[in-house]
Automatic annotation (TrEMBL):
Domain (RagB/SusD) ranges: 320-589
One Pfam family, short name: SusD-like_3
Protein name per UniProt: RagB/SusD family nutrient uptake outer membrane protein
PROSITE patterns membership: PROKAR_LIPOPROTEIN
InterPro entries associated with the record: SusD-like_N, SusD_RagB_dom, TPR-like_helical_dom_sf
Keywords from the named record: Cell outer membrane, Membrane, Signal
Taxonomic lineage: Bacteria, Pseudomonadati, Bacteroidota, Chitinophagia, Chitinophagales
Gene Ontology CC terms, in alphabetical order: cell outer membrane
Domain SusD-like N-terminal: 63-226
Biological source species: Paraflavitalea soli
Length: 590
């Protein structure tokens, strides 16, 4: 039976308007196989595609920083805490993406199989455009899920080869042979690039209406009217995957593949990774387009409340839905502000913030005074971390984290107190009130991709490929990017950032600086654990804190890290290894 589905504009509006684009309604439940498109419901095929969007791993905050040297938690049931304390195993893996990603890929494969047999609109030209768009989205999303699978599960197998994951590219059914071997890492990367190329070719750069003759219908869509184009690719669909987003996913995947942990099994070079990031940044406007308010994307209430459905501020390339809530604040405000103080930044991370003059605190030229450790520091320190004497909450309450403090905000006072002498400030809206007598919610969203991430991707890859000042075929260097990021942060502005000027003469020193800037700019956004592993950097640095008594700070050990060297690669899930003999486990895991 030919699968004909007539989709009307009203159906499109139903899917994409209201509170925000892509906010899922009640899940479609059917007495049908998931690959059955014969139901006479225009929303069903879109629902299959939206299942992929709803499974994007970056939805929600994982705070895997708790498994690194950047943070600990006072929640003793936290899976990342247990992982860092030696309980990480193939059958106990908080970072597991296997089931989620392969479930999403199955739905996307269904779309790719059946998309051309669906009549998306009564008008043939419009129906063809819808088919192109849906197919492009499915290819791009499939590439994204394979990237997340590689990040979580690729590694050196028992054979000694760098392995990826099984490339499931067809719809699975009860007759499918599920006992498939892992593809090589290189072949997985080739598949990701192939899917992204197809997505880029099918999708518009952005979802925008055709406004005038200076903004014509792209030639790849043929001779269609403005109305037809806007109906399929117009502003109504902001928030869905675009050509620009596909280019950014390529940058993320290439950075992973070029990194030390994966480069031996990949033909992707540092120059490739730099050029992929550079392409996106050039479209944005280069280094001069670094968003001036990029540090306050999570706390700028006016900017956030003014977001139209699907629209992004300058710092954000792609985000999830916004929602009005107080969940992050409830979890992470200190106890006197009625919070649970869950994520506690470490002294290790605090020490990574330079002085206001740009020098690391370990440098003799920095002017750092250990007895007054938060004075004249990088402004990002107090923007991201609540230090002793800092303020928080709607009334700018002064928070005392000292061990001899008089409130429960002090070090280890109660179960919800800090274990390190610090509380989280980044990501939290300080205009949220948790007082039960006057509690309120505020709008939050989570980025899937920030432009600052792409700038840092470029800086890292360009420095490795061409050195601090090299540009390849691009118009800017790693040095240019880091200078702009540090200037935005407000450091080194009085001395022309003398430390950076010294670093630009050395790839090794610039590498260290870029890694540190990435640590600071992206802290608590789920990057640190993956970065340490792809760099082959030590995972076992003890998490430290500060105990302040009589106004004298003393550095303390808070939590050790129990990782083995082979854990730079994650495991294949234990149950998958038991079920399928063709699957090869990564070395060291059982």
């Amino acid at each position: 039976m030919k699968r004909n589905i007539i989709i009307l504009l009203a159906s499109v509006l139903l899917l994409s308007s209201c509170k925000d684009l892509l906010e899922p309604a009640i899940e479609n439940n059917r007495d049908l196989n998931p690959d059955d498109f014969t139901a006479n419901d225009a929303r069903f095929p879109f629902g299959v595609l939206l299942n992929g969007y709803n499974r994007i791993p970056t939805n929600g905050w994982s705070f895997n920083d708790v498994a690194t040297d950047d943070a600990v938690t006072n929640d003793q049931t936290n899976g990342f805490l247990k992982m860092a304390n030696g309980q990480w195993a193939a059958n106990n893996n908080p970072l597991n993406q296997w089931q989620n990603c392969y479930a999403a890929i199955q739905y996307l494969n269904i779309m790719l199989r059946d998309v051309d047999s669906v009549q998306w609109a009564s008008d043939a030209a419009t129906s063809k455009l819808f088919g192109m768009r849906v197919k492009g989205e499915a290819y791009g999303l499939r590439a994204l899920f394979f990237y997340h699978l590689l990040q979580a599960h690729a590694g050196v197998g028992e054979s000694g080869q760098l392995m990826g994951v099984p490339l499931m590219l067809d719809v699975q059914n009860p007759n499918t042979d599920f006992n498939q071997p892992r593809a090589s890492f290189e072949n997985c990367m080739k598949q990701i690039y192939s899917d992204l190329d197809k997505a880029d070719a099918l999708l518009p750069l952005d979802y925008e209406n055709i406004t005038n003759t200076a903004n014509p219908v792209p030639a790849k869509y043929g001779a269609i009217s403005k109305e037809q184009y806007d109906r399929v690719f117009g502003t109504l669909f902001r928030g869905l995957l675009t050509g620009r987003i596909a280019k950014a996913i390529r940058s993320k995947a290439a950075l992973l593949a070029a990194s030390p942990a994966f480069s031996t099994g990949s033909s992707t070079t540092w120059a490739d990774a730099a050029n992929y990031a550079g392409e996106v940044l050039t479209l944005k406007g280069g280094v001069g387009a670094l968003a001036p308010k990029g540090l306050t994307w999570f706390s700028d209430g006016a900017e956030i409340s003014g977001l139209a459905d699907g629209a992004n501020p300058p710092e954000i390339l792609w985000r999830n839905n916004y929602g009005d809530n107080r969940d992050l604040e409830q979890a992470n405000y200190p106890p006197t502000l009625f919070g649970n103080g869950r994520i506690n930044p470490t002294q290790n991370l605090v020490d990574a913030f330079p002085m206001l003059n740009g020098y690391p605190i370990s440098d003799a030229a920095s002017g750092y005074v250990a007895s007054n450790p938060y004075n004249n520091r990088d402004p990002r320190l107090k923007q991201f971390i609540l230090v002793n004497g800092g303020t928080a909450g709607p009334n700018a309450t002064v928070i005392n984290t000292a061990a001899d403090g008089a409130t429960n905000d002090g070090l280890n006072k109660v179960e919800t107190s800090t274990r390190t002498g610090y509380y989280l400030r980044k990501l939290l809206r300080q205009d949220v009130n948790l007082n039960p007598n006057s509690a309120n919610n505020q709008r939050h969203y989570k980025p899937h991709i920030r432009y600052t991430e792409l700038f840092l991707n470029y800086a890292e890859a360009a420095n490795e490929a061409w050195g601090p000042m090299g540009t390849g075929s691009n118009a800017f260097s790693a040095y240019d990017v880091i200078k702009a990021i540090r200037k935005r942060a407000g450091i080194g502005t009085t001395n022309n950032d003398a430390y950076l000027e010294t670093a630009k003469a050395s790839k090794e020193q610039m590498r260290e600086l870029i890694h540190n800037e990435r640590r600071l700019e992206l802290c608590f956004e789920g990057f640190r654990f993956w970065d340490l592993r792809r760099w082959k950097a030590p995972l076992t640095e003890t998490a430290k804190g500060v105990s302040i008594s009589n106004n004298i700070p003393t550095i303390i050990d808070v939590e050790s890290r129990q990782f083995q060297p082979f854990m730079i690669y994650g495991p294949i899930p234990y149950l998958e290894i038991l079920k399928f003999g063709a699957l090869e486990q990564n070395q060291g895991w059982r």
